[in-house]
Amino acid sequence: EAGVAQSPRYKIIEKRQSVAFWCNPISGHATLYWYQQILGQGPKLLIQFQNNGVVDDSQLPKDRFSAERLKGVDSTLKIQPAKLEDSAVYLCASSLVWQNTGELFFGEGSRLTVL
Amino acid sequence: QKEVEQDPGPLSVPEGAIVSLNCTYSNSAFQYFMWYRQYSRKGPELLMYTYSSGNKEDGRFTAQVDKSSKYISLFIRDSQPSDSATYLCAMRRGAQKLVFGQGTRLTINP
């Protein structure tokens, strides 16, 4: 079974530029998550989708971050304009169920450096 | 105060030692407690999962939850160099979002 796919693995941009990350979850997983992991910290949830609907985006900086999951499968996370503090690893995860015990399967992450 | 506190380490122990990793939390409503292992430049992977209080054992790994003290632990017996990674505790209440600790960086020295 293929895991969660993410691209690009690495991206370096200058502040105020834009960047987009792509995620393809495990086949059949209805729930998709985007996490931000700053160096030395645990992952922080940015947004959670159930199929193509948003379940939780309370910690998404909506003035600069946007995410979509149009067909309920793959997803894109965009940052525009980027700030220095956005330097982090952006992790995508998926799960079969979200109500209680659904295990989250993570991708390898997209590492962003903002100069 | 953070909802979940975890000593970031780093923690370095010799091969074969027993390792103890811990987290404390403030939200008494947390019901589901997990430990994730994250190798360098990889995504986290679920290692142990516990519902409510008690112990759970899986091979060399034991997870303990003490809800009265708001304290969870992960023990690794007969530690191996391949156990070198960052260990993240995580917890949630019902269907609410998973809250992660900061992670403890562990190195097992041959």
Structural commentary:
The complex is a heterodimer of chains A (115) and B (110). Helices cover 0% and strands 48% of the residues of chain A. Chain A has strands at residues 5-7, 10-13, 19-24, 31-37, 44-50, 53-56, 65-68, 75-79, 88-95, 105-106, 110-114. In chain A, strands 2, 4, 5, 6, 9, 10 and 11 form a seven-stranded mixed beta sheet that branches. Chain A has a four-stranded antiparallel beta sheet with strand order 1-3-8-7, with no helix packed on it. With 110 residues, chain B is mostly beta strands. Chain B is 0% helix and 55% strand. Chain B contains no helices and eleven strands. The radius of gyration of chain B is 13 Å and the shape is globular. The N and C termini of chain B lie far apart (37 Å). The model of chain B has no long low-confidence stretch (mean pLDDT 93). The interface between A and B is medium-sized, with 22 and 22 residues.
List keywords for this structure.
heterodimer; A: 115 residues; mainly beta; 0% helix; B: 110 residues; five-stranded antiparallel β-sheet; 11 strands
Summarize the structure.
Chain A is an all-beta fold and 115 residues long. Chain A has strands at residues 5-7, 10-13, 19-24, 31-37, 44-50, 53-56, 65-68, 75-79, 88-95, 105-106, 110-114.
